[in-house]
Amino acid sequence: MTEQQQTVDVLVVGGGPVGLMVACELRLAGLSVTVLERRETRTLQSRALTIHGRSLEVLALRGIVDRFTARGRPVPTGIYGALDTRLDFSVFDSTFPYTLFLHQNTTEELLEARARELGVIVRRGQRVIGIDQADASVIVTVAHGSDQQSRLTCQYVVGADGARSVVRQAAGIEFEGLPTTLTAMLGDVVLDSPPTGPVLVISNSAGCLLMVPLGDGVRHRAVVIDHLRTGVPQSEAVTLDELVTAARRVAGRDFGMHDPVWLSRFGNETRLAASYRQGRVLLAGDAAHIHLPIGGQGMNVGLQDAFNLGWKLAAVVRGLAPASLLDSYTAERRAVGQQLYHDTLAQAALITAREPDTMALREEMDQLLRIPEVNRRMAAQITGFGVSYPGPPLDAPLGWTVAPELTGRRLPDMALQLEPGADSTATTVSLYSLFHDAQWVELRFRDGDGDGIGGEGRAAEVPPAFPGWSKRVDVAEVPPQHRHLKQFTAVLIRPDGYFAFVRSSIGPATAQ
């Protein structure tokens, strides 16, 4: 039986962290948003265990990061290819120079609470069975209950529904890449003899073992690649005996594993969507890219997909930007997906090394990671701090231009001393606090003559960069390490915290 058709601005398919993040961004901009999730309840299993530094910055840009850091455990180092040398996250100019160990189900819980707080409708037990695009809308058919169907009409659909995405398949977007060639196993178990330290990694010719405490004070996540068992089909259930035997083979001991609450087998299938957009359908997260789960990158890259897409899609739906802005989503984020594709293949090769030549390659790579510049480069890639975008997603507003040394680069949080108000009292604010409402932010600096922001009355001559979608802040001073910003009279920052444009004169000018 089909129910009456409903209408919503954007329909998000998939109620995991990525889908919920997209929904939060869209609702923050005032759009009506419904999330459809096929699961009746949140899963108790936690596929992802870490939120990396850039993802924490994303949450800080929207004013909700404290909800996550209060529940997680910071770790200042990371693992690359199961090598002995750790990645050092403490070298980055960030409020979050670490990775946060936090169960994915907790991340999902917090994001769903935020979504509902903003007014997002989350409907569970909903299965998409049809998507029909028209020129100005999309009709989505949903199955729920024993024999119920409903139809929703929306302007856009976002598919955040995982590796087997129904949305991607309905849109006819190719999922290009490599099939599973090996499998590994994991278990969330109690240990009688747990290892010391935040993370244990053992890699040798027998395989690889990773052991991480889950943060509940009771269990550890044990991940084992046993070279004698990599050909077992992913569909075959893992037993505790199999996991224990594999751990003994690789590590020489089993740490007293018992009482598993989750056992699973996973593979190294690696794929990337040919495009992240087809008409009014867009993809994010695992619907757009999958890989061997290494380095905690999957969910984090997905969250940043969502953050990149949210403000752009909201602007298009609100009529503040042309639909062509959405093309920049694929251009910017698929490039990150391509890097993720190659990086995880490279790490998989290091992890599965067993012959003398590939073991020698591991040793060489481990030596390279001891070079600070190399370590920083790889750490920036894993954490997302190294992501930059080559050009602005929109044409420069009148009077603004690109600056090659800044445009597309991430902006760290900093304390800004604002120009005194009417009461002559200066105020210091966090830069990231200016982005809580997801607008463009224009920082205007005291000019070189020390006469304030362009002189009395001149501010009125300069129109807002994006009327109805941007805010101005007059800045008196920035921290010393960011004084280079004041070579410009103003900088314009995207809603997702990346530099876009600069001004070299405060008065009316022609865009270059």
Automatic annotation (TrEMBL):
Domain FAD-binding: 8-341
One Pfam family named in its UniProt record: Rng_hyd_C
Keyword NADP found: no
Keyword NAD carried by entry: no
GO molecular function terms attached to this record: FAD binding; oxidoreductase activity, acting on paired donors, with incorporation or reduction of molecular oxygen, NAD(P)H as one donor, and incorporation of one atom of oxygen
UniProtKB keywords: FAD, Flavoprotein, Monooxygenase, Oxidoreductase
Top-level taxon of origin: Eukaryota
Protein name (record): FADdependent monooxygenase
Family annotation (PANTHER family): BINDING MONOOXYGENASE, PUTATIVE (JCVI)-RELATED (PTHR43004:SF19), TRK SYSTEM POTASSIUM UPTAKE PROTEIN (PTHR43004)
Cofactor section: FAD
InterPro entries attached to this UniProt entry: FAD-bd, FAD/NAD-bd_sf, RIFMO-like
